[in-house]
Write a structure and sequence with these properties.
Pfam families: DUF4159 (PF13709). Helices cover 36% and strands 16% of the residues. The chain contains 7 helices and 7 strands; from the N terminus they run αβαββαβαβββααα. The two termini are 21 Å apart. α3 packs across α4. It has one domain: Domain of unknown function DUF4159 (Rossmann fold, 3-Layer(aba) Sandwich), CATH 3.40.50.12140.
């Protein structure tokens, strides 16, 4: 069964290898938060790391086969997240077939996403990703690990991951909210240097996902 999913995933990527998507989920949380974030990140990646990503990211339902069309999907929001059994199974199949999920912790997401990820991989635990991991050392170098972009609870920024058979399949930025840093400057009034740092880390995530 796993080989079938891998084949379908690779087949779907033959024409969509450099597209990205935003994950639509249930539970009432605002999956559509930070609407300028992904378009800005795409523009930055296309300009600075040589990608050729469509400038209009699609939104895909978590239970849809459409997720298999994308090497990376992005997820954020402030409120509740609820995965049905079908949602969890589809997301698991996507990830074990070669897909990659980036979750950006908007304030209020943490307790819900940790709960729901256990439905996707009951036996896996989120692990803090060490600063020497390749995701921090793509085109842009982050020798100290994930940068701090946005303040939530006066806690240090952390990057967590789920590893399936040794491969990083989920990257979760916690207490930093990278996607806030990707938004238009007027929205959060972040200094240019902060936005640039966030975009560089985002570009690394895309680059890592495309390579792995």
């Amino acid at each position: 069964m796993k080989k079938i999913f891998v084949f379908l995933f690779l087949l779907s990527l033959s024409t969509n290898a450099q597209n990205v998507a935003i994950l639509k989920y249930n539970g009432g949380g605002d999956w559509y938060a930070n609407p300028t974030a992904i378009p800005n990140l795409i523009d930055f990646a296309n300009t600075n790391i040589g990608t050729n990503i469509s400038k209009d990211p699609q939104a895909v339902n978590i239970d849809s086969e459409d997720v298999f069309n994308f090497p990376i999907i992005f997820m954020t929001g402030h409120g509740n997240v609820l995965f049905s059994d079908d949602d969890a199974n589809n997301l698991r199949n996507y990830l074990i077939s070669g897909g990659f999920l980036h979750i950006s912790d908007n304030y209020g997401l943490d307790k819900f996403i940790r709960r729901e990820l256990k439905k996707v991989f009951p036996s896996l635990e989120l692990k803090e990703i060490p600063s020497n991991h390749p995701i921090y050392h793509q085109t842009f170098k982050f020798p100290n690990g994930i940068p701090k972009i946005h303040e939530h609870n006066k806690k240090p920024a952390q990057g967590f991951g789920l590893f399936y058979e040794g491969r990083l399949v989920v990257f979760y930025d916690y207490e930093t909210d990278l996607s806030d840093g990707w938004e238009d400057e007027i929205i959060h009034n972040n200094p240019k240097s902060v936005r640039e740092t966030a975009l560089k880390m985002g570009a690394n995530i895309i680059e890592f996902a495309f390579k792995n």
